[in-house]
Specification:
With 106 residues, the protein is an all-beta fold. The chain has a single domain, classed as Sandwich (Immunoglobulin-like), CATH 2.60.40.3080. Helices cover 0% and strands 52% of the residues. The strands form 2 sheets. A 5-stranded antiparallel sheet has the order 2-9-8-5-6, with no helix packed on it. The two termini are 24 Å apart.
Length: 106
Amino acid sequence: MIEYQTVKIRRLSFCNNKDAVSGYDDAGHAPQIGLYPNPASHKISIDYSGIEALHVELYSMFGLCVIQCKLSSKSDEIDVSQLSKGIYIVKIIAAGRTMQEKLINE
């Protein structure tokens, strides 16, 4: 018997880090980022379009930065298999804008 796992892809939009407005560009388009799977156990994938490069940081609930990396290929994976089970905050920075999302590592 084959078991299938449902993976939810959540699309996230940036807020403007400088003046806390919508984060939309001049044409009214918000950069989109896909972060999945969530919950994760081995790797998380980050898909992004309309953005040249991202700086990604993962923080524990104690505020410790446990992973820092730069991504630049429109779709990247980050290995989270060495992290303890728990809740983390993923902070993504690009073009002066910041986005944060909760990540559950199982």
